[in-house]
Amino acid sequence: MISVTYCFPFSMDGESLMASVLPNTDGGLLTKDNCALVFIDHQPQMAFGVASGIDRQLLVNNVLLLAKGAKEFGVPTILTTVETESFSGPMWPELLDVFPDQDPIERTGMNSWDTPAFREAVKATGKKNIIMSGLWTEVCITWPTLNMIGEGYNIFVVEDACGGTSPAAHDAALSRMVQAGAVRMTTVGTVLEFQRDWANREHYDALMQLFRDHGGAYGIGIEYCYTMVHKAPPARKVPSS
Predict the structure, then answer these.
(1) Which residues pair with 80 in a beta bridge?
(2) Fewest C-beta in 10 Å: which of 92, 172, 204, 226?
(3) Model-wide pTM > 0.70
(4) Catalytic status, residue 140
């Protein structure tokens, strides 16, 4: 005889066991006003070690889409690097160019939360929802994520703007963080969550151009729609003569 156990999302007294919506969010959603973004260790030596399955050029593209999207919507952003001079090299120049007036917080430790200047920068944003992007997922994202959850922050990990040293390392890190309460995100979804309503025209044109530049097939579709349906000229940076 086979014994079968059925699992239901309710306790014995009928109360729901489903996870509740995270506090300090807009009904579970991020907005441009309720979150901050952290970029951790986007440096050459760290990128060399990424072997989690994502193409490195796609990784760079996703990071830039996330960074430029956050800047467009005014989301507070923190940059931090580790052992720049002795091992890892400077932060990617394309990312630094998005925030030309910002110097990355330099660290010696692998866990950003161990560095007082980083903790102070996060606290100074006044936000309880922190979006994370960085290298490597299993170390420099997981460790501060666990510490920050313990300090009462909601952590959102943009997994396709992160990279680990192997598929197993990346997946195990994501599982470990989710078990602790972190939320998995993706780049396009995160940036669109800032926009949320297409009736909001303040960032509309800039967002469309951003997706043209970094949105892959989505961006190609936008360009096609503009030129073929709306008969707009191609979005060339150098007009034809």
Answers:
(1) 40, 105
(2) 204
(3) yes
(4) yes
